[in-house]
Amino acid sequence: MESSLLNRITGAYWLRQLEILRFQLGWLGSLGLLALIACLLPGLMLVLPAQQQLQQKTQELAWLNQQPKTKPLPQAPLLNDEQALRKFYRQFPLADELSPQLAELHQLALEQGIVLTAGEYKLSNDANDPNLLRYEIIFPLHSSYKNLKSFIAAAGLKFPTLVLSEINIKRESISDNSAQIKLNFVWLLVRSH
What we know:
four-stranded antiparallel β-sheet; single chain; 2 domains; alpha+beta
């Protein structure tokens, strides 16, 4: 009970003090005081959060400065033109090593549920580079879309120089789960010296 009386007295006291201040300042002074308060509030609302952000960023910077310095990663040695060209051609399989890789391609197809029973193969010179050969492969097959997608993805990962150049898909009706497919691959090979 005493605390509520004290609050009322304190509240009444401050109201009385404000009334005296208003009387002493007059109408123009009161207006100036309100304008000052109106300017201070938005300023404080902007300054306090910015000050907290500055303090946080200062702490983060101090923490980063305490971290051990790391050495820059070593740069790959610069290659001259001849070395760069040799490195480029090492990416391609040798033409002499094609048979085992074809066997791996057939095995990969089997693992994905596709049987490559027939194929057309054609070896030709690459028109853009005399050191490369183009081995064109056409596989007619019958498969589901899921198996086909898995086979193409797996072949691309396993053989980076094997490129899918064309694909034709034909299915008899929408309800068919599998389709007749014709895959055209180009395998870039380097000539054996």
